[in-house]
Prior knowledge:
By secondary structure, the chain is an alpha/beta fold.
Amino acid sequence: MTELRACVIGxxxxxxxxxxxxxxxxxxHGIAGDYTRVDVPPKDIERFFDEFPQSGYVGGNVTxxxxxxxxxxxxxxxxxxxxxxxxxTIWVKDGKLHGASTDVHGFIANLNRSQxxxxxxxxxxxxxxxxxxxRAIAYGLLEKKxxxxxxxxxxxxxxxxxxxxxxxxxxxxxxxxxxxxxxEADLVINATSLGMxxxxxxxxxxxxxxxxxxxxxxxxxxxxxxxxxxxxxxGNPVVDGLGMLLHQAAPAxxxxxxxxxxVTPELRALVAADLAREAKR
Length: 281
């Protein structure tokens, strides 16, 4: 039986939990396959994608800093990737490289699982950050018909750029001026890497927030960031970033291996335990 091989491509890539997730699903479904990390520095990435159809891989995940280059290298991208200008999932079809973005699916599926009915009670969402994750999150919120989406960034010009990408349907604000918007917020999302292990914390004053507002952090290492601790301490419902990682992986796995896997409590516990072990090192 031919072994199907997929991979995750980034730089650096040693921190990625994707092999743990996909190898778990391969074992659960009894599929003869493998999933590995491939560290590709920026200077080599274009050639890597050009040669990918002959590499023996059926596909791969693409992470920082290669998602935009991947989008430019595929012959066909799905509608979500075309809006975002970024690809996080690639596969080989008829000898050509195809791509999609599953980040929006991961973001929304995590919210749906963690806070059922959130969209029915969310009129205003405040997204902190205007980097790579922000476009996928903004796309998901707009698709869910959230009326007011505020993008707050330390640099106001970057916030304006994200809003412009979505035909100015977002309200850009400087992070220093976000407090009045937090008072109205039903959902607050940290779309930055602040709070991640090795990064400075996100210093966000949550005192203007109503207690019913959901606080969502896309960071998953550590699993409970300082932002989520502060939100939980004041009684706000919280959503961590691990579910987004798990849910975005499922459609990619289906694309390569032909089976739609489930995001189960067992899988979450497996990855959470691995994160906890690393935190103790």
